[in-house]
Specification:
Blueprint: H1 2-13, E1 52-53, E2 68-69, H2 71-80, H3 86-93, H4 98-113, H5 117-127, H6 147-161, H7 195-198, H8 211-224, H9 227-233, H10 237-250, H11 254-264, H12 273-280, H13 292-299, E3 302-307, H14 308-320, H15 324-333, E4 334-339, H16 346-352, H17 383-391, H18 395-407, H19 431-445, E5 458-463, E6 470-475, E7 481-486, E8 491-495, H20 507-511, H21 520-523, E9 533-536, E10 543-548, E11 554-559, E12 563-568, E13 574-579, E14 585-590, E15 596-601, E16 605-610, E17 618-621, E18 627-632, E19 638-643, E20 647-652, E21 658-663, E22 669-674, E23 680-685, E24 690-694, E25 699-704, E26 711-716, E27 722-727, E28 731-736, H22 737-741, H23 748-753, E29 766-771, E30 779-782, E31 788-793
Parallel strand pairs: 3-4, 5-31
Antiparallel strand pairs: 1-2, 6-7, 7-8, 8-9, 10-11, 11-12, 12-13, 14-15, 15-16, 16-17, 18-19, 19-20, 20-21, 22-23, 23-24, 24-25, 26-27, 27-28, 28-29, 30-31
Helix pairs in contact: 2-6, 3-5, 4-5, 4-6, 9-14, 10-11, 10-15
């Protein structure tokens, strides 16, 4: 690992005279780890997880030395001081109202409990609260008399940060919100919001016997309203139903609550059935304590997008009827995103709704996203390849050119939508990488040009007798190795070429080798260890994610045991275990440039890591349920995450902000794929639908229906003409991506209101369906010549 650190650390350290600060500089949501001499140092307090860097600069030649505040305090720090500097905290604290003082005391109490004395002192000094803070519990006391009140206050602070969007009040990527139990950092106990704080709004109860009448009255009004308004106002049924039911339960009207649930739960949309099943189990006030669904509903306002006309109609009705009970819920628990213009149709609304917290706010998708590709470095390709172009059939030269444009390689002009080259520090190309790129370019000349009339062949790797239970698969970019993660906690690596896998010789044998010889890389390999399969032991739970590094030297695996492991493919041993998640890690993926990788898990956050830092560089918090899948954008500046809260989020690697929220899936999301040009994102979920998104405009632009079960894998062909999808329904389907993305309506009006018009029939885009006998498709991969490789484990019926 020392070699890795030496190779890579300089990437982070290298000073950039005119560019932005290197990635691990102090940012909200940032937790730089330790590097070698001269890199960014940080004082780590406590275990895994990151936080907001709070302290001042100084030391080693002006290198910043941030003091790290743990994540539970991060929300407060992010709202009080977005820059993370204690000086900003001073400005924010002047003239504090009493509620703010309570909040501040809660943060001070937390800092004391976490043994972060230095940060506590700075905050106190700046806030002039030395005397007043004394009452919040004795120093060094972990569970002081004020501890319960403090946790309630902390949760309120976190809730105030808000779970969605990069708005000014939100901690964005900086800190886990209250909805996500703070399962990171140094907090020993689950920092669940205190029930009394979270449920305080449910005390304003009306007459329990009237709830059914209120709801029926509104239902009757909506069903009798004009068709154009009915579809929009019908969105109110579900959130109102949930909040009215919870209000009855909280105020201990159990029989009324049961009767209310039985009478109206059948009216709700089919895609909320799973949530309703959880809700039906909450029949007593005690059940609400620590219930995640409950907390999600209270701490994140349910978002409805409604036209101004429909909203005025609703408001007038509720005021005329003096229906304060429903109006209070609308005001307290719902966020109504009003737009000017025509109301949306039922079909348009159905396409966009279905997530745990309603639709995304329009503001959430307005930030600028650099979705273009970075300019590839100039690499001289040997001449014999260039000459071949003319000799072959006419299609060949045309074939090579678009690929080069789409990759950006050799293109002289910069993509106008691309981020600046130095926006985030990326590793420099090694000689071996350059050779690999040349090989890639040679393969490109022989690539098959795909389209509706020329579909790819599919080679299926079936894992037979996989009694260990196949849970993850990955294939290297050059298609030479395939890795499988298994439920018996092993990772197995196969060579799918005649070249066998060999380990490096022992240290004593290596000392005998002539290091100056040309074939030294060949000589260090031990022929006695050659085999087609290597088994990697180290995890203590099922392995749910696997990812090869672009240079094929490393393999990442993530597991139920809460760790991500980095394996060397030279020695087939574990180099590092990254511990930050406290719960199962469902997925991990290397950046297309190597060095960085991302992981997502049951603790509802995704983390960005660098191979030579043992703590995460960024924590992406905002999802309301497990993060099931993670993917890097081709330019490595963004990370997409798909979650069980039925949303997809796009995060900016530079500052940890959430820049896109996509809603529309009706089930947990299990697969993501970016188009090779970086403009589009495809997502697949348990609802069997594949949705297509325009990243620049933040809009849904397509819906592919056909699968009858969870879509586990998505992959675009190398030129982006075809999208392949693999599912638990034992099929691989190929879709015409060119046709799906042409003639898109992405005018300003559509973007502003979400009046999307999806094609009626996605069957026109389906190019082929390929059945397996009884093998769910776990992974798909396009080789450099556009052959499809698919993989899965045979499951006898």
């Amino acid at each position: 690992m020392a070699a890795l650190a030496e190779e890579q650390t300089e990437v982070v350290i290298k000073p950039d005279p005119e560019g932005p600060p290197a990635l691990p500089a102090t940012q909200p949501g940032d937790c730089p780890g330790e590097g070698s001499g001269g890199s960014h140092n940080s004082s780590h307090n406590g275990g895994g997880g990151g936080g907001v860097a709070a302290s001042s600069a100084g030391g080693d030649g002006g290198t910043p030395k941030p003091a790290v505040v743990p994540p539970a305090a991060a929300a407060a720090a992010a709202t009080a001081a977005p820059g993370g500097a204690a000086g900003a905290a001073a400005a924010a604290v002047e003239g504090i109202a009493s509620q703010d003082r309570q909040t501040l005391l809660a943060v001070l109490q937390f800092l004391r409990r976490s043994n972060l004395r230095e940060s506590e002192e700075i905050l106190r000094r700046e806030a002039r609260l030395l005397e007043e803070a004394a009452g919040a519990g004795a120093p060094g006391e972990v569970d002081g008399p004020g501890a319960e009140a403090t946790s309630a206050l902390l949760s309120r602070v976190a809730a105030a940060a808000g779970p969605t969007g990069p708005g000014p009040g939100s901690g964005s990527g900086a800190a886990p919100t209250a909805a996500a139990p703070a399962k990171v950092g140094v907090v020993a106990v689950e920092d669940q919001p205190d029930v009394s704080a979270v449920l305080s709004a449910y005390n304003q109860q009306g007459d329990p016997a009237m709830y059914e009448e209120y709801y029926s009255g509104l239902k009757h009004f909506i069903e009798c309203s004009l068709d154009c308004h009915r579809a929009e106002l019908s969105q109110l049924f579900y959130p109102l139903f949930v909040h009215m039911y919870l209000e009855l339960v909280y105020n201990q009207h159990e029989n009324e609550a049961k009767s209310f649930f039985e009478k109206f739960h059948g009216d709700q949309e089919c895609y909320y059935q799973d949530d309703l099943r959880v809700l039906s189990s909450l029949t007593k006030k005690e059940h609400m304590k620590g219930n995640e669904t409950m907390l999600d509903f209270r701490t994140s306002k349910f978002v409805l997008r409604i036209s101004r006309d429909s909203y005025q109609l609703l408001k007038r009705h509720l005021q005329e009827k003096q229906n304060n009970q429903i109006w209070n819920i609308v005001q307290e628990h719902l966020y109504i995103d009003i737009f000017d213009g025509m109301p949306r149709s039922k079909q348009q609304i159905d396409a966009m709704v279905g997530s745990l917290a309603g639709e995304a706010k329009r503001e959430a998708n307005k930030a600028k996203v650099f979705f273009g590709l970075l300019k590839e470095p100039e690499i001289e390709v040997p001449l014999d390849d260039e000459d071949e172009e003319g000799e072959n059939e006419e299609g060949k030269p045309k074939k090579k050119k678009p690929k080069k444009d789409s990759m950006g390689s050799k293109s002289k002009k910069q993509d106008p939508n691309a981020p600046p080259q130095n926006r985030i520090p990326l590793p420099e190309l090694k000689d071996s990488d350059k050779l690999d790129k040349i090989m890639n370019m040679k393969e490109t000349t022989k690539r098959v040009r795909l389209g509706p009339d020329c579909l790819p062949s599919i080679c299926f790797y079936t894992f037979l007798n996989a009694y260990q239970g196949l849970t993850a698969v990955d294939v290297t970019d050059d298609s030479s190795l395939i890795a499988g993660g298994f439920a018996d906690s092993t990772v197995r690596v196969w060579s799918v070429t005649p070249k066998k896998l060999r380990s490096v010789k022992t240290a004593t044998d290596l000392s005998l080798i002539d290091k100056e010889s040309d074939d030294v890389l060949e000589r260090i390999m031990d022929e006695k260890t050659a085999s087609e399969l290597k088994i990697l032991y180290g995890h203590s739970g099922p392995v749910y994610g696997a990812s090869f590094s672009p240079d094929r030297n490393y393999l990442l695996s993530s597991s139920e045991d809460g760790t991500v492991r980095l394996w060397s493919l030279q020695t087939f041993t574990c180099l590092v275990g990254y511990k930050g998640h406290n719960y199962p890690v469902w997925d991990t993926q290397f950046s297309p440039y190597g060095y960085y990788f991302v992981s997502g898990g049951h603790d509802r956050v995704a983390r960005l890591w660098a191979t030579d830092h043992y703590q995460p560089l960024r924590i992406f918090a905002g999802h309301l349920a497990d993060v099931n899948c993670t993917r890097f954008h081709p330019n490595s500046n963004y990370v997409a995450t798909g979650s069980a809260d039925r949303t997809v989020r796009l995060w900016d690697v530079l500052n940890g902000n959430c820049v896109r929220i996509f809603t529309g899936h009706k089930g947990p999301i299990h697969s993501l794929a970016f188009s090779p040009n970086g403009r589009f994102l495809a997502t697949g979920a348990t609802d069997g639908r594949v949705l297509l998104w325009d990243i620049g405009h933040g809009l849904m632009v397509g819906e592919l229906k056909g699968h009858t079960d969870t879509v586990c894998s998505l992959k675009f062909s190398r030129d982006g003409e075809i999208l392949a999808s693999g599912s638990m329904d034992n099929t691989v389907r190929l879709w015409d991506a060119i046709k799906a993305f042409e003639d898109l309506e992405t005018d300003d009006f559509t973007t502003a209101t979400g009046h999307i018009n999806l094609p009626e029939n996605s069957q026109d885009l389906l190019l082929g369906t390929y059945m397996t006998k009884s093998t769910p498709v776990v992974h798909l991969h396009f080789t450099r010549r556009n052959l499809v490789l698919a993989a899965g484990a045979y499951s006898p019926q």
